[in-house]
């Protein structure tokens, strides 16, 4: 337990303020980050994540002590007093239908703060934005057909409102905790991660699942599973590993205990902009060509 | 100012988006309005999809307890696919272990990381740093030693809840949003190495529950004895039962009326009212298998995106308290022993369980019961037995999946037409507990628990947030300010 005395930072420690904005989501990204191992969530909250620099998490609705107006004031205060200096992490999609009425974040002086309005204000004034998870990166689950609440990803909302703050997409449903903490570390070290054509750090999303899949030999031999859970390549039962770029196969999940394909489940393609509509039915074979031809005909695609 | 209204928005340290507005007269809450402020439209999104995808997508309703949506949806699809009775004992146990792991992570997370900061003075222990400040100030009563210990356990509990997820992932593949539970069974086979890895993580978690979680809850309950008297609620309880084993369930379904009378559950008596919800009135009062979700944001008197589920027309509470009281009245020995020893330790009567602290204690005891029973289940796994039963996708079918969830009773209902989802309805535990008024004007369980409560410090209304959080709601909340005459200052304004 860090005590009050030894926690007081020497003046050389640089603090990067961070705001974690909850959109239309399920809190699963937050819970995934709670599963981080090295560093642990405790380190993210209290310690220097890279020597000499620590994150100061000023707002996170699921863990912060305060509530009500006092925490909405934290948001207002940060965007004013720390303009251009804070990191904005967005979890969840942005409901834009009916001017954002389907999702509010809080209330200040009798006025509802919509998620959409808060993102525009906080996003314009941030140093950089990490769009955490499938929903904030590309719209994700709430934006799935028929998208009843007009949900969009952060980058799309920024584009429509001419907001030029850099956005790093860290997709996944949920994302692996290392993907977020690694991205934060890059930024704390003063480096902008190299991104792919859909805005993801290449470090984590650089290789196809299929290339590193432990069932690749089965695919090559033509040994295919008939049901999820069977031995063999899961392609015929809907695996989207041939389309999906992420390092799950090497990194594995939950402290390296397991991951989807190892557990006998087809990859759902949850890190791709086409998740979930074009990577489903999840348990039916869909070829890369099928998905790509759907993207070309779908003008709504965010790719 | 004797008469005023509060709106707290957001109520943090819960999952999701919820709003509470309370009207206070002479320091006592006279009226309370609970309002869900986020609508995503899952039931609309699920329409026309492959029924099997509901099993993956419905988990995304909630990232804190996705495993139970996977379970409810698998039961619902098992039913629709004609698989009920064909699920192997191995598959039942593995599903139980996945669900049980999530119960443990959810209950531990709730007490330490969501609720405890209302009682434990973290600022005293770690300093004046975000996100532990700003906060309500004043009523932190734990003595120094217990306060320090509880803060240390807050940190330890972060590791323990993480290990609950690691344990879950052994059979679930990954967490949040497991892939292991599927209609027909599960995907992971119970090999000896997995059984051992699971068991030893479970042992560590059981030690934490016995030596930290339960003693901490008791210490907080003793210090905040007045919270054994407030937040009573509606008094009616319901649970669907859960954790299938052989032909039974570990928790048995039941309904309890305010006079502590136990009766059998009849799921046909569930209906959903929408008079005070932002949904079309044409859909009110229907059983979930016939219900539709038609949003309507401009609607007089409506104040929530949550519908009002009712049982036999009555307001009912669901959750660990309901399960413990139902189990007690069913004479279930493990539950009886635990509850009796709790009552004598705290020197309280059974009625006092209907309170803020009673709910925390019931949740802790439930965590122990589930964890201890998981240790019995895991050794019953048979590495040679099947974990999956095959099926054909039906063209037309109906299905129901009812299960105990960490926060209460969860139900999924499906209709399949042309082998696609025609209709999918979900009633989550928080829909019951955080529901707005029903068509008859009766307030929901959280609203009733708030009404009549005295607020001692107007600037720091601890009572309100402690009552709300003891229900472990799965939403994020809001509380608006209104003038003394009750005139609303806080109209909806789009920023």
In total, the number of strands of chain A is 10
Given this structure, which CATH class of the largest domain in chain A is correct? Alpha Beta
Mean pLDDT of chain B: 92
How much of the sequence of chain A is in beta strands? 15-25%
Query: What is the CATH homology-level superfamily of the largest domain in chain A?
Result: NADH:ubiquinone oxidoreductase-like, 20kDa subunit
Taken from the alpha-carbon principal axes, the silhouette of chain A is: globular
Q: Span from first to last CA of chain B? A: 30 Å
Task: Compute the average pLDDT of chain A.
Answer: 93
**Helix content class of chain B:** 25-40%
CATH superfamily of chain B: Cytochrome-c3 Hydrogenase, chain B
Derived from helix and strand composition plus strand pairing, the structural class of chain B reads alpha+beta
Distance between the termini of chain A: 45 Å
Descriptive labels:
heterodimer; A: 303 residues; alpha/beta; Rossmann fold; Cytochrome-c3 Hydrogenase, Chain A, domain 2; 2 domains; six-stranded mixed beta sheet; two-stranded antiparallel sheet; 13 helices; 10 strands; globular; disordered N terminus; disordered C terminus; B: 495 residues; alpha+beta; Cytochrome-c3 Hydrogenase, chain B; four-stranded antiparallel beta sheet; three-stranded antiparallel beta sheet; 16 strands
